Structures are given as C-alpha cells and as structure tokens.
From TrEMBL:
Domain of life: Bacteria
Organism in which the protein naturally occurs: Alsobacter soli
Protein name: DUF2948 domain-containing protein
Lineage, broadest ranks: Bacteria, Pseudomonadati, Pseudomonadota, Alphaproteobacteria, Hyphomicrobiales
Amino acid sequence: MTGVNALKLVALDDEDLAVVSAHLQDAVLKVADITWLPREKRFAFVANRFAWEAQRTDSGERRRTGVCFTRVLKVQHSRIRCDEPEAVLNLLAVTFTAGESPSGVVTLVFSGGGAIRLEVECLEAEMRDLGPAWETPNRPVHQLQD
C-alpha cells in the first residue's frame, strides 16, 4: 500500500519540531529500536508511524520511519524499562524546551507516563520514511477530556 508519498522532514527549531511531532503522534516502537551513540552525539529510533496525512476513513496506514537527533549531549529515561527490549512504546509527542540559546531539551512523551529527555547543543532532527505504507484496521483514538 502506498497511499501517500514518503516523508522526509528536518527540524531546526521548535516550529519545525511541532510538525515532526504531529507526524509521529501514535507511532509505536520497541525499546530495542532506540539507540544512543554518545561518542557521535546521536540519538535515533525506528518506529511504525501512523500516516495521519493518508486521509482514509475506513482504515489507516502505517509506515516504517527513522528519526535521528544530532548534537545530543545527554539522554535520560523516565518510566521506560530499558532492560525489556521487546516492550512496546506509544509515542504521543516530541517537544523542545529552549535553554541558553541555541541549546535546550527535547522530550519524547509516551503513553503511560514514559519519557525520554535529550539535552542538545542545538535542535537538529530528521524524520524519514523508510519504505512503503501498509494498511492497518487500527486507527488510533484519543478521548477528549472536558
């Protein structure tokens, strides 16, 4: 299934990252699909993202997508079991909080209260679809609170 063209996005500021975050909302990944390369200052993961831009009504599409953050100084995890490589995480959002310019903190927010915090020299991220889309009958649903 290839309902839409593959995406390749770059984020160099918080507005760019908001676009990347919107495309990654409801991406699922395993803990084993996350890597931190401290000597290279790179943090990366591969996920199956829900292709919100596909505009289907009866079903949805997912795509295998790679995400890489560069110039990463430190990585911290909260409520994520790094010792369970097969654990599945549901990504809800990716945010940036500015520090002393151009540095800051990127936070990957997962369902269930999990988070990964990246201290970065500056914001440099790339998201790239790695292959064709496939159909899924499972469309993510979010309950709105009053």
